[in-house]
Specification:
single chain; alpha+beta; 7 strands; about 35% helix; Nuclear Transport Factor 2, Chain: A; seven-stranded mixed β-sheet; 2 domains
Length: about 170
């Protein structure tokens, strides 16, 4: 750690020395040149995914894509080992129980429903997040889901809790 700090300090000092030499050379030549401001780094997928909010949004979209692509194995990879999913009046505890309850949803050639996140909020600690959004059947919004995600390793978020709520028809409580 100490050696790394010394290298960083040496590199910073070298940069200052080079800049001073360049300024002296410009001044002694009698010519002045405007030094352009450094460009900001480009926005890349990696830059966007550095944000915990973007990581959770991407994880939720990938999780939903497993249903659309009928990839049950990939679906289960997003489940925390201690996940709790609410389905109507039943509750599944643990990844194995959740997977068993969801397996029938992957049996048909076409997905029975789809979902997409429209809101993600992450705790200041960066360890837990809420993802919520609409659930569609045949293009009609039928419910909203709420999922709690936990950061389990760098850039690895898994669903800990999941619960959907039916939406009311207009004018009905």
């Amino acid at each position: 750690m100490h050696t790394q700090r010394m290298r960083t300090a040496r590199n910073n000092a070298l940069c200052v020395l080079i800049a001073a030499c360049l300024l002296t050379a410009c001044a002694s030549s009698g010519k002045t040149r405007a030094v352009p401001a450094p460009l900001p780094p480009p926005v890349t997928t990696a830059t966007l995914l550095a944000s915990p909010t973007a990581q959770v949004m991407a994880s939720e979209r990938a999780f939903a894509k497993t249903m659309a692509e009928r990839d049950f194995k990939a679906f289960t990879s997003y489940l925390a080992s201690d996940a709790v999913f609410f389905s109507g009046t039943s509750v599944q505890h643990g990844a194995a129980e959740v997977a068993a309850a969801w397996k029938p949803s992957f049996s048909a050639a076409k997905a029975p429903f789809s979902w997409a996140p429209d809101v993600v909020e992450v705790l200041a600690s960066g360890k837990l997040a809420l993802s919520t959004g609409p659930v569609y059947v045949g293009g009609t919004m039928v419910s909203r889901y709420n999922s709690i995600w936990r950061l389990e390793a760098p850039n690895t978020w898994r669903v800990v809790f999941d619960k959907g709520e039916a939406v009311c028809a207009p004018g009905k409580p």
